[in-house]
Amino acid sequence: MRLLKAVMPVALALLMLMGCEAQEGESVAREENLGIEETMVSTVETSEWEDPMEEQSMKIYLPNEENVQKLGRTEFLEDTLWLAYSGSGAEFRFIGKKAVITFQGDSTSLRMGNVDNHARIAIYVNGERVVDDMMDRAEKSYTVVESDTEEEYTIRIIKLSETAMSTVGIKGIEVDTEAIVKPAEEREYLIEFIGDSITCGYGVDDEDKDHHFSTRTEDVTKTYAYKTAEALNADYSMVSISGYGIISGYTADGNEKNSIQTIPKYYDKLGFSYGQYLGQSPQNYSWDFSRRQPDLVVINLGTNDDSYTLTDGEKQEEFRAAYVAFIGQVRSCNPDARIICTLGIMGDRLYPCVEQAVEAYIANTEDERVTAMKFDTQTASDGFAADWHPTETTHQKAAEKLTAYIEELLKF
Fold first, then answer.
1. 78-114, pLDDT tens digit by residue?
2. Looking at the domain assignment, is residue 16 inside a domain?
3. Do 141 and 219 share a structural domain?
């Protein structure tokens, strides 16, 4: 297999779309020195995406369930596979000589100066990351396989960054005419992770606590959630948004509740985003929980609520009561799943309320398939990423603890 070095053509001037760049909760700053590593793959920007393949006969596969296994929450929209939440994507097996993947950007991708909010995407070929790029064009194509001989490959496509700032679509898979494309096999178990910036991988590629938010430094594959799923050989689905909580999103002033940024209101949606994809917003699409039920749901919320509740007993009780209700919401959508309620990586002050919520829920419902687990709090010796977020080292330790807990609980 030959992987071609990245070639970025001179782009035509694009119409600059004006739009809301509101960043609620966690601050956003421009850190121009933070770049993405060079991508070892041919990159082509086109309006007619078949054009780069004119020199040989190729055929196109749509990214639908007949051809790919969908990862996380996705939506097939106008013959494209729409990716919103961190970790959403697709995986397929390919037997052939050449493969080209084409992506379609959302409205955020057209704002050329909006570099800290563009979607970050990755493509893996046989477990090796061969594309790591930002969706800063309306459309991009990547030659990920080019060989003189027919070989078999597993190709995985992952949206590395979170839903709020931007979404992206897989437009098509172009292969040589004799090639075979078929979905990768589902793994035996599916784990859903519900969380905030920690689960999104906020700043994990920028280990400087004084730096701030950028989708360029988010990477869900370096988080405790993704690492846990991989360790257990399980499929995953992420439902996470930076700055969000149960009763309040992040607030710099504990006197003011940030009731806008709460996960429960978006839990049954495809996602939430300030940008639009093909004129659509993910928060307007209800998620069909019957598509595939998770075997396990891991809830990791409360870090942002703590910025509001602080040490106020009444506010903490409000959090506890709302947490009980959220467990009920999750249970109603996933009647057969085990549920683990966690907290602690960036602080554990609200963890006793999480334990109390689990106990109250069990007492009220006699549903004993819910339990609580406390993460170890990050330490200075393991470093801090942007805005005091966990480093990959901290994520790895958290994954090891959660993996061991799940193995004991469910005998994976």
1. 999 999 999 999 999 999 999 999 999 999 999 878 8
2. no
3. no
